[in-house]
Amino acid sequence: MLDYLRNQLRSLKLTYTVYNFLHQRKLRHNEQLYRRYGLRKRVYQSVSSDDFKALGAGEPPRFDVHDSRQVAASYPGFEQFSLAIQEGIRSWSERGYMVLRGFFTADEVATINSEIERLIGQGEANWRYSHVKIMFAIHQSEAIRRIVAKPELHAVLSFLLGKPVTQPFQSINFIQGSQQRAHSDTIHMTTYPLGYMVAAWIALENIDASNGPVFYYPGSHRLPYVLNNDYPHDNTHFTIGESAYKAYENAIDAVVQQNQLQPEEFHAQAGDVLLWHANLLHGGTPIQDAHRTRQSMVLHYFAEDVICYHEITQRPALRAKS
Ligand SMILES: O=C(O)CCC(=O)C(=O)O
């Protein structure tokens, strides 16, 4: 009965509006952005891609417009990166992902893992999605926050987006593989203009084909964004459709089939990092060995001075200071 009521409340746009109204402090950054981009809405109201149609596409990230292989070296700051990172940046426009091998040390990885273990042991881990994801550990652990706040990571992300990127919007930790179906993060963390999000996924142990690695479709970020109007979401003016996310996943499967996309898997050593573009299609492969863990952490970053929201539920993103 309680679950039923909770689901009913979650399907009402009004529930989110009231929640946002009560948390306006975390939406204040949008006041100036709405003015700047010409969006005529209150910051606590629902917002989705429909609201931006009349405003045009806005200015996309620079490497979505110009091939990073041709132009990256001409932007200030490129020389600060190692040769391996420079090569990753060069291939960004074409592939939509890049790898930072050995970016976190064994000590840093061990500290993150023991902090997660501590949160779980103390019953403080913020589990979601049937005990698959631990949300926002960065808000609970000073040690994790400090480790992931590497200036070099922020420098790479800022360089890729051509706008400052200073802190993660959220963190998610996994103990086992997510086995999540293919999706683009833009359906969960949408921006106006589109494309100003990057994910940084950190291997916290060695990962191979048997413990549910992340998979992705190279180059898929260049396909059109799939947003609410591109699948049968059954939303109404007042409610969010109950099976909207499933319908979205089915639409992405169709995109994969139509374009005959071929997946790659991210096999990694502990400390390796995979960065992916806001629209790169990706997910988690099935776990072949149920006895194995797949400890990992993903951080999602928005560029500063863009509008961020959740397309499916049409909620503006609340930004808490970490
Ligand atoms: O870690 C995984 O298996 C998938 C993570 C993911 O899809 C995401 O962070 O968007």
Automatic annotation (TrEMBL):
<dbReference type="Pfam" id="PF05721">
    <property type="entry name" value="PhyH"/>
</dbReference>
<dbReference type="InterPro" id="IPR008775">
    <property type="entry name" value="Phytyl_CoA_dOase-like"/>
</dbReference>
<protein>
    <recommendedName>
        <fullName>Phytanoyl-CoA dioxygenase</fullName>
    </recommendedName>
</protein>
<dbReference type="GO" id="GO:0016706">
    <property type="term" value="F:2-oxoglutarate-dependent dioxygenase activity"/>
</dbReference>
<dbReference type="GO" id="GO:0005506">
    <property type="term" value="F:iron ion binding"/>
</dbReference>
